[in-house]
Amino acid sequence: MWYMLYMKHPKLTASAARADFARLVTRVFGGERVVIERAGGVAVAMVPVDDLALLEDLEDRMDVEAARAALAEPGANIPWTKLKAKHGL
């Protein structure tokens, strides 16, 4: 799936992005998403800050769903202090 998203957006090498960083920031600030490649592969994506906020909200919602599912599992809950001690944390 990430590959299809990758194909939709402009791609730049890391060197090209570095050389024209100010213009790249302006493009992303304007709403464009840009993929930056390094050593022939996908390295990072620059996205507008609103997109980042949406991603973080999605991650938070997924974390809440996972926590609710874990709490609904049968069996006794393990206290956090006991779990930390077991794993040397």
Q: Main traits of this protein?
A:
89 residues; alpha+beta; YefM-like fold; three-stranded mixed β-sheet; 5 helices; 16% strand; elongated
The CATH top-level class label: Alpha Beta
Largest sheet: 3 strands, mixed
Overall pLDDT metric: 90
Helix segment tally = 5
**What is the C-alpha radius of gyration, as a whole number of Å?**
20 Å
Overall body shape: elongated
The CATH architecture term is: 3-Layer(aba) Sandwich
Low-confidence stretches: none
State which percent range the strand residues make up. 15-25%
CATH superfamily: YefM-like domain
Could you explain how this protein is built, in words?
The structure is a single chain. By secondary structure, the chain is α+β, with helices and mostly antiparallel strands. It has one domain (2-73): YefM-like domain (YefM-like fold), CATH 3.40.1620. Helix content is 60%, strand content 16%. The protein is built from five helices and three strands; from the N terminus they run αβααββαα. Strands 1-2-3 form a three-stranded mixed beta sheet. It starts with a helix and ends with a helix. The mean pLDDT is 90.
Offer a quick outline of the entry.
It contains five helices and three strands; from the N terminus they run H-E-H-H-E-E-H-H. The chain is elongated, with a radius of gyration of 20 Å. Strands 1-2-3 form a three-stranded mixed sheet.
